[in-house]
Write the structure tokens for this entry.
Amino acid sequence: MSLRDRLAKDLKQATKNRDALRTSTLRLINATIKDREIARRVDDDAQEISDSDIVAIISRMVRQRQESARAFEEGGRMELAERERTEITILEGYLPKQLSEAEILAAIEAEIEATGAGSIRDIGRVMAGLKERYAGQMDFGTVGPMVRRRLS
């Protein structure tokens, strides 16, 4: 079952269960996917969005909600921060399993060896390979400095 089919099935079930937060979150994911498809049709006449594109969309939505939750906490709006955290939990259910730090370090080493990277100038190639192989499985904001330290 594709990720898109799973989202549709879960949306139908959430609607039947009258789970308002889950329903609204899943509808937002679907709307974002449709927006991306429309933009692609206009830009380059592409087909449907792949599962990896959907994972990237959901990852971006998780990051947005994490930032919002922090902002709400700083502003003393704990009920809104908690809602954002609940949405994060729902969204993370559709992402692949996150790699542990040891697995990330092993992936970095493997990618450095595969690309033959030897200096800091090769960081772009290493990061591109990691993003291609491990999209949605690691936070590249934290992986970048790890790669930089390793290549320094």
Observations:
- The chain has two domains: 3-92, 101-151.
